[in-house]
Amino acid sequence: SADEAGEVQIVEDLLNRPDVKAIAISPSNAPAMGNLIRRVAPSIPVMTIDADLIEADRDLRATYLGTDNYEMGVLMAKHAMELKPDGGTVCLQLGNVAADNINARAAGFRDTIAGEKVDRLTGQNGWTEVDGCPVFTNDQIDLANQQMQDVFTANPDLDAFILIGGWAQFGPQAYAQVTDQVKDKLDSKELVIIAGDTLPPQMDALRAGRSHAQVGQRPFEMGYRAPTVMMELIEGKTLDPIIYTGLDECMADNVDSCLAQ
Prior knowledge:
7-stranded mixed β-sheet; 41% helix; 2 domains; Rossmann fold
């Protein structure tokens, strides 16, 4: 579904179907999905994939299969600190306000930069989030690119823009147009861009010098393993509550060899 309410409705319909024996859910609105599962109290196994429920609702699912999203944010922060050792001004671009996976990445980024748990960077180790950020894309590609353009215009001295997810890069033409206005700064690393995910248009952006680091999930592995996990749950097997897939780190110097096979 293209919207959170529609996603919840689809899952509710599936949970009420007698022919559905297990379900894997990637909730875009984790609290809403948790409320649904708690209300319906399904008798079939429920697992989450890619995005998890909020911590208070994780008793509702048998296991989570996907990325260690906090660690993904940690790696993005490490690349930012390597590229900008003195710190600087930064803007984080997030997805939906209630997306647990995206919020975990943002927490990993901020905590690593600050060296402690913080809700916002306000000068810790030289890093400060600019006014008006973070921005939330609501998973809309066009909005993500417009937000980038607006942030670049409003903050001509910005040091780093962090796409916690890949949104803007999934519209290659628009992303190229937006980054054209700051291409000189990207080339000199006066401005650095670090983004989540390593899908083909994003790797093209990295090769073109329109980002400096991509920290990628392994979506194929998630999809490949999910049916097996659901079959094991249907068979009554007890699995670990968290099954992490790996992460790939891609930069200009390893762009052709960084992805797991």
